[in-house]
Design goal:
Elements: E1 2-5, H1 6-20, E2 24-28, H2 44-48, E3 53-55, H3 60-72, E4 76-80, H4 91-98, H5 101-104, E5 114-119, H6 134-137, E6 144-146, H7 151-163, E7 168-173, E8 181-184, E9 197-200, E10 205-209, H8 212-228, E11 232-236, E12 239-241, H9 245-255, E13 258-265, H10 271-281, E14 291-295, H11 305-311, H12 315-326
Helix pairs in contact: 1-7, 3-4, 8-12, 9-10
Length: 328
């Protein structure tokens, strides 16, 4: 075991998978000698060479199109979109091509493609380097969507994504790249795509989150346990598609109350689907209203640090929402 950051875990996963399977290659803007804008691929170019760590043009559509073609040719591409905000030019390729090949071919064609991209606010990136885009893709059958919140999960889930026979969108909370640290095994292990993780067990209420918000929520739950005696259960969804409904319902069955935290815009954000599941399938277990704590309905995360902090949920605002729901 070693202490590692989220970005260390992602780099280790790619390194291990490239060493394990010669079909795995990485492509994207500046992923080569520079090692990526966040240094996620640092050292991989020197180790594996230009044929397996391929700098791409500044054209997201072509990055994904090349990845789809390579996947159909039995390679295992990892396509990096430098910021999730710029994934939109490739939306058609992802939604109308990669997601539908398996279905439209009656299972004859698979697309073992991983699309990695940093998402979310917290780095004063402004309008075009801070967006959360997961809800756009969570509507699309044929895709898997994964968002880790710990180094252990980041490594294990990314390795599972590379080995998956069909497309996986792997969104990484950029605020947590170096802020989130934890123990990381150097062993070859995977974390299955699908099941949620109970980040903290509790009995008074359930809080559902993912990515940076799962990290913040765990901090908030520990705070209210110390200061208010509230025992909050934290469920890290970590896979958004497919959604682990069983974990959600089991948690609320135990606690009776639910808070959903996500940093995207509130209206039709991903957490609304979690709320719908609770209303539709968990109503009989609820002892209070389903609450959401989210980003604001404004075009994007502001550049100003103070405005950014106002926009995004944080451990203090999450703790206050927990207290409110608990009746304190």
């Amino acid at each position: 075991m070693t202490q590692a950051t989220l970005i260390d875990a992602i780099r280790m996963a790619m390194d291990e998978e490239m060493g394990r399977d010669p079909r795995v290659f990485l492509t994207g803007e500046d992923v080569g000698r520079r090692g990526g804008v966040f240094r996620a691929s640092q050292g991989l170019f020197d180790k594996y060479g230009a044929e397996r760590v391929v700098d791409s043009p500044l054209a997201e559509l072509s990055i994904i199109a090349i990845g789809i073609g390579a996947a159909l040719a039995d390679l295992r591409p990892i396509c990096e979109i430098q910021f999730a905000d710029f994934i939109h030019p490739a939306f058609n390729q992802i939604v109308n091509e990669a997601a539908k090949f398996y279905y439209r071919s009656n299972g004859e064609w698979r697309v073992p493609l991983v699309i990695r991209s940093p998402y979310g606010g917290g780095i004063s990136g402004g309008l075009y380097h801070s967006q959360s885009v997961e809800a756009f893709f969570a509507h699309v059958p044929g895709l898997k969507i994964v968002i880790p919140s710990t180094p252990h999960d980041a490594k294990g889930l990314l390795k599972s994504a590379v080995r998956d026979p069909n497309p996986v969108l792997f969104f990484e909370p950029k605020k947590g790249y170096r802020a989130i640290k934890g123990e990381l095994s150097e062993d070859d292990y995977t974390v299955p795509i699908g099941p949620a993780r109970i980040a903290r067990e509790g009995r008074d209420l359930s809080v559902f989150a993912y990515g940076m918000m799962a990290h913040y929520t765990t901090q908030a739950a520990e705070k209210v346990a110390r200061t208010d005696g509230i025992d909050a259960e934290v469920v890290d969804l970590r896979t958004l598609l497919p959604l682990d409904k069983t974990a959600i319902l089991d948690s609320v069955k135990k606690t009776g109350k639910a808070l959903i935290v996500y940093e995207d815009n509130r209206t039709m954000g991903y957490g609304a689907e979690v709320a719908a599941v609770l209303a539709d399938e968990g109503f009989e277990y609820l002892d209070g209203p389903v609450r959401r704590l989210t980003g604001l309905d404004v075009p994007a995360v502001p550049f100003s640090h103070h405005m950014q902090e106002f926009f995004m949920p944080n451990p203090d605002t999450i703790a206050e929402a927990i207290r409110e729901l608990a009746g304190y």
